Amino acid sequence: MATGLFIAIEGGEGAGKSTQSKRISQHLEALGYEVVITREPGGTPTAEKIRSILLDPEIDDMPDQTEALLFAAARADHAHNKIRPALERGAIVICDRYIDSSVAYQGAARGLGVDRIRALSEWATGELLPDFTIYLDVPAEAGGERMDGTDRMEIQSRDFHVRVQQAFRDIAAASTQPNVVIDATLSIEQVSQAIIEKLDSILANR
Ligand SMILES: Nc1ncnc2c1ncn2[C@@H]1O[C@H](COP(=O)(O)OP(=O)(O)OP(=O)(O)O)[C@@H](O)[C@H]1O
Ligand SMILES: [Mg+2]
After folding, report:
1. Which protein residues have a CB closer than 5 Å to ligand 2 (ion)?
2. Does ligand 1 come within 6 angstroms of the Cβ of 28?
3. Are 17 and 96 in contact (CB under 8 A)?
4. C-alpha–C-alpha distance, residues 7 and 143, integer Å
5. Cα(10) to centroid of ligand 1, in Å?
6. Per-residue pLDDT tens for 63-104?
7. Which ligand is nearest to the Cα of residue 183, counting in written order?
8. Among the bound ligands, the one closest to the CA of 151
9. Which residue's alpha carbon is at the smallest distance from atom 16 of ligand 1?
10. Nearest to residue 35, comparing CAs of 96, 95, 92, 97?
11. Ligand 2 mean position to 183 CA, how many Å?
12. Ramachandran region of residue 111, left (φ > 0), alpha (ψ -120 to 50) or beta?
């Protein structure tokens, strides 16, 4: 039975997920919580190996189905071997991307079907869902300007990234799970402030 708190941070490329994950985890650690900061794809040795395949820009013939299954395979390992054990010992887990990223990228932007892709990840994780999701909303243009890397997902077309951004908005709007959508065009400090306010109130009400 999970007793910790599972927080997912979602958004397109360059939205500020990694930046904010670090800042939130510093804030929570300063309050005395055990915090596990992790990311997808990856987070465990096996999942990091799968990540290197998924993000390899030299692979230009990966079928969309292979991509979807590899993301789900990495997530299964991560959920079973790292996230669930951390929650069971009472830690706060901050996960940079989770199921919604697959729903947005593979389900919506690749066109594989949002319901099918969500069901695949829910099965893969044994229905391990976040307690709270933070959606960092940034126009694909602005996120693109912040992108530094050239990984296999980042080098997709502009249209692809626009579909991803719209998909995250649709997912957040339709979500029945606890979440907040934050305007990530604000400064790093302002975004952190908005997230921390939310988390402090969640923690105070537990
Ligand atoms: N609110 C912000 N305003 C301006 N610049 C920002 C903001 N948030 C992050 N950045 C900068 O944008 C770049 C990308 O941020 P970050 O790596 O946190 O994004 P990300 O969402 O993790 O991206 P990716 O999806 O590629 O992993 C970094 O150089 C970061 O310092
Ligand atoms: Mg990142």
Report:
1. 17-18
2. no
3. yes
4. 22
5. 12
6. 999 999 999 999 999 999 999 999 999 999 999 999 999 999
7. 1
8. 1
9. 16
10. 92
11. 17
12. left
Mutating to test ligand 1, I would choose from 100, 146, 165 the residue with most ligand atoms within 8 A of its C-beta, which is: 146
The span from the CA of 108 to the CA of 116, in Å, is 10
Q: What is the largest CA-CA distance in the chain?
A: 49
- Residues of the chain by 3-state class (helix, strand, coil), percent to 5: 55, 15, 35
Ligand nearest to the CA of 137: 1
Best of 19, 24, 187, 192 for a ligand 1 pocket test (most atoms within 8 Å of beta carbon): 19
pLDDT in tens, the chain (206 residues): 448 999 999 999 999 999 999 999 999 999 999 999 999 999 999 999 999 999 999 999 999 999 999 999 999 999 999 999 999 999 999 999 999 999 999 999 999 999 999 999 999 999 999 999 999 999 988 898 898 778 999 999 999 999 999 999 999 999 999 999 999 999 999 999 999 999 999 999 98
Domains of the chain: 5-204 (3.40.50.300)
Nearest-CA residue for atom 25 of ligand 1: 13
